[in-house]
Amino acid sequence: MPLQASDSGAPASKTLWRWGLVVLVLHAGLLMAMLGVSVWQVEGSRALRVGPMQTRWVSPEPVKQQAAPAPLTARAPGTRVATVSQPAAVRQDALPVAPPPEPQAEPDPATQTAMPDHFAPGAGQEEDTKPPESTSLAQAPTAVAPSAEGISETSMALPPLGVGSLPPSVMLSYRLHGQEKGIPYQATGELRWQHNAGAYAMSLSVRAFLLGSRHWRSQGQITSQGLAPVRFSDSWRSERATHFDRAQNRIVFSSNAPVASLQPGAQDQISLYAQLAGLMAQEGARLQPGTRLQVQTATVRDALPWLLTLEQEELLQLDGQPLMATKWVCMPRNRFDAKVEFWVAAAHHWLPVRIRITQVSGSFIDLLLSASEALPPLPLAPAPG
């Protein structure tokens, strides 16, 4: 743009002012670019950087509509407002406080051995020997004189048994399979029963590979009430014994357990099988499913009432041959006890043809009859003292 000269030859003042303004603007822009002037804007919670001399439109946030507050309702001081009706408040200190639960006895780890400790009723966990209060055996009613219509759904003591009702001398062999701590195993079992007119001897033996053998033995007299045990023992690695002191009407344990009072008809956990066999031979036609028997039964640690329940007949397979058998169930005495089931049949003089014992842990043993052999009567000898 050519400069216009005045009449005197100098540029016009208006033109000089315009050029000065342009130069000033150019210098100002160049200075701002060199300084890197930035404008920071905050959009919500996020910072945005924009270039020099840059404008940005930020839309206003919509106004949130607030719900109208609920109308206040008058209430008594110290009460709580709710949208639904509530029952009247009860002071916590006015409520009855339940007593803390009693500690439960845990099984003694010293009794957990490689050979399963439950080859007979109640022999699994015996540390907690107090029956549950809801099923106290000591308070179970008894019926001594059964009616002619049959003994159905009653609880009774064992009736007197004649020697003729006891099974003949015999040896029963069993195949055993079981599971201990999730590991299955095989074993063999043997039940020997011998008696004469005034005495008996009975034993149950179990042999397992790598575990050895375990023996339970019962010896005693035969009276008008049936079997009267004198000594019971449990042998594996060492022997523990229980003595029936009838002169002082007590049961004494070699394990230093408290002495127990001897009740009429008391048995040990092996003689009980033969006593029930005599009962089935004598009263079997009158016993109905649901019959319950209460029998004081001694182990090597205690002598507590056991409750046995007669159930329905079941069809078993013995070496591929069918056999109808009657089932007995021994109810657990406490939360550590095993469930004991055994089946008896007239074809084998009501001695067990199958015994199954299941622990609360899931471990079990199952003995199934494989053979039987007649034995001679027990030789005449003084009963053990």
How is this structure best described in words?
The structure is a single chain. By secondary structure, this protein is mainly beta. It has a domain at 119-134 and 151-374: YmcC-like fold (Beta Barrel). It has helices at residues 13-35, 271-283; strands spanning 39-43, 46-50, 155-156, 170-180, 183-195, 199-208, 212-223, 226-236, 238-245, 250-253, 260-261, 267-268, 292-298, 303-318, 321-330, 339-344, 352-358, 364-374. The protein has a 16-stranded mixed sheet that branches. The protein has a two-stranded antiparallel ribbon with strand order 1-2. Strand 1 (39-43) and strand 2 form a beta hairpin. It is elongated and about 160 Å long. Residues 35-55, 71-114 and 118-153 have low confidence and may be disordered.
Structure summary:
The chain is mainly beta.
The helix/strand series, from N terminus to C terminus, equals HEEEEEEEEEEEEHEEEEEE
Percent range of helical residues: under 10%
Question: Which fold does the CATH topology of the domain at 119-134 and 151-374 refer to?
Answer: YmcC-like fold
Shape field: elongated
Structural class: mainly beta
Mean pLDDT: 73
Key words describing this protein structure:
mainly beta; single chain; 2 helices; two-stranded antiparallel ribbon; YmcC-like fold; 9% helix; 385 residues
Task: Summarize the SSE layout with pairings.
Elements: H1 13-35, E1 39-43, E2 46-50, E3 155-156, E4 170-180, E5 183-195, E6 199-208, E7 212-223, E8 226-236, E9 238-245, E10 250-253, E11 260-261, E12 267-268, H2 271-283, E13 292-298, E14 303-318, E15 321-330, E16 339-344, E17 352-358, E18 364-374
Parallel strand pairs: 3-13, 12-13
Antiparallel strand pairs: 1-2, 4-5, 4-18, 5-6, 6-7, 7-8, 8-9, 9-10, 10-11, 13-14, 14-15, 15-16, 16-17, 17-18
